[in-house]
Amino acid sequence: MDRATAIIPPGSHLVCLGLNYRSTPVELRERLAFPEEQANIAAAKIHSLPGFKESLVLSTCNRVELYATHELADSPEGHEVLRRYLAEHFELADDHLEALVFYRLSNDEAARHLFRVVSGLDSMVLGETEIFGQVKAAYQRALAGATTGRTLNKLFQQAFTVGKRVRNDTTIQRGSTSVGSVAVDLAEKVFDLKQCRVMLVGAGEMSRTCAQSLLSRGAKSIIVSNRSYERAEELATEMGGRAMRFDEWEDALHEADVIISSTSAPHFVIKQDLIERVMRQRRWEPMLVIDIAVPRDVDPAVDKIEGVYLYDIDALQAIADDGRRERQRALSSCEQIIEEQLAKFGFTPTHTSPPPETGGATTEYSTT
Amino acid sequence: MDTDALLLLLATLACVGGVVHAVLALRAGSWKNSRLHWLPLTLAFLLLTGFLYLRGQSNGRCPLTTMSEVLIFIGWCIVMMYLLVGPAFRLSLLGVFTSPLVAMLLVLAQVLPPSTSPRPERPIIALLELHAAVSLIAYAAFALACVTGVMYLLQERLLKKHQISGLFYQLPPINGLARAIQRLIWIGLLLLSVGLAISFALEIEVSNPKIIMAWIVWGLYALISLLMWRHVTSPRQTAWLAAAGFAIPFFSLWIVTHG
After folding, report:
1. Relative to the CA of A43, which of A294, A359, B103, B178 has its CA 20 to 30 Å away?
2. Which residue among B169, B175, B236 places its CB closest to the CB of A191?
3. Å from A68 to nearest chain B CA?
4. Which of A277, A306, A335 corresponds to the end of one domain?
5. A6-62: per-residue pLDDT in tens?
């Protein structure tokens, strides 16, 4: 679909060549990732290729995408030049190159794809917002490196406008989609996270993920207690917290606002009478107890205690599932906004069905 | 229609409009923290200020001469208190819970039959006007504590029942709500204490039903404050006391205006 739009001058082509988590496994993606300082050099190199006018490299852990405008005969020729450039840059053998599944998008499709990426619709976690910042950072680097021009500048600014609209006008960001983010949401609705003290009882992988989510959102401090003190120390050092011997955690429990328990004990570790005693010490200040262990660590009767909010792994998972369903429900509204905005910016909207996911074997997106 | 009546009607519509918009936005999931949410209650506040000014001019005194005027004055105080407290605690959703209460007070003020017995003419005593105004501002603080208490109980229930969707994401953290309840009760108690202290200077009879009722309200909130201070009651119990306790000052208004 090669045709001029409001922002693509006659004779020019807007192209996007990319691969993402759907099309390419991480072992291959990591080989093709551009470190931050390399992305601009690559953009400058593409910019200097014969017939190329503008370029931008977007490289995140889930995708590598090259955006460019060129004045070659047609879009496929531009895609092929970009593909060859990647092969040369990463010194890929021909058989490796042939094994890679790229999506090759032009003009309207490239714009639509960018709008979807910025809105978080093409992300592994639907509606996540980190990608917005990543695209913005990539654009600002390209802008500073003077590899963008009128078309890419307008396109990316439009994409940011669309991303904000999708975020503000739909519920695509609502709800938590992972156990870690559910834990953060819950903690935020009980406490001011900046004052929140976290205690890990057991140092399992999932409790580590939850604790890291809380810390990244500003939790004040963390105490790690584990049967293996060395493991507790290791985790505490990694997260900037304090390790505690396993026979001491009960005495320090009243200091914690959020308790994340994930021991491998075959019986309840946190019992009703213990929490009742702790709540008296805390003068009924609320406490969030997250029980990730299977079999469970926390006696369900603890939930009956006033001011104690107990969530086990099933409860957390159910909330995350609800969050994912909520986002799926919002998807069609998001696609509608994107199509409206494409039309507004002079691109051709699709009125039939939502665009196919990049990386799949589709008829609309040619892959190699 | 008189200008003051028109202002009152518009203020009521602003409150009702605000709450309808908020409920629709919450149901559609499009509610966002925004300064626009302050608009209906800010508008209502300005209109009520206009109303009270005009009524004060025509009465030649503080517009607290009838039950209707008292209700409107309390509504005005509640909105004022909300505009002061809301931003401080970042409780924009408090407006959604405040608007129905204010709207109810304003509607009640408009449907109440006008007082049939003419009130005795009495000279304007500045201290008496101050006593009444400060006491009613205290009542407004208690009203807002009641609204905050309802929000606390709602959020607490959602957390306990694991109903993590919709309204849950819009309500503030329960710890913040608990602190807001405490502070509003303390502010109200302080203001009511000032109001009662002024009554001593006025040498009003201790057996006056208004004073007795004011002391009962003061006693209730002093007890709640003491229980909070000594941590005898949990935050949830305090929220219940703040929410249900407002019934006493609310019904005491009838005695205050008819006594």
Report:
1. A359
2. B175
3. 36
4. A306
5. 688 888 999 999 999 988 888 888 888 898 888 999 999 999 999 999 999 999 988
